[in-house]
Amino acid sequence: SEVADQIKPSAMPEVTEAISAEARQEEQERLIEDQKKEDDITSQFASQMSDRRRKEANEEALEICRAAKKEGRELTDEERKKVALYSGNGGIGANLNQYFTRPDLAESLWEVLRRNGMPRDAKVLEPACGSGVFLQTAPKGTQVDGIEIDRDVALVADMLHTDSDIEASSFEER
Fold this sequence. Notes:
The chain is mainly alpha-helical.
């Protein structure tokens, strides 16, 4: 081709290496986006479970997180899927707390912030992060850290979002 004819043979290794690096970067970004979509699908599924099943999924998620933390390791892909089902205790029995924001609403709020001038590399604090919906849906390049008053929920967020700092405390005490 004309482009190939214009490249000096001595430059071919650098060109090939640059193309390979760019392809690896694009593949990495695609895998991250695919994981976000998979987590989003999982969390939407969680909102459609019965109270009994939600309680079971929540308990299993906490057991997985506690074990991984005790062992000093990150979650496996299979464990991430199970932990992403954590849906809080809102509406289960008499508990009226822990209703987590739906991912589609979080994405819409991020879009509003972007349209109103939020820079791509913004640093954002989520003062009641729950299991991390806003962390999960944040625009690429945005650093989101979270505070969560419930220690169990903070653990779930911390295990799911290892690239964010999660603090288990009250926002007011911070």
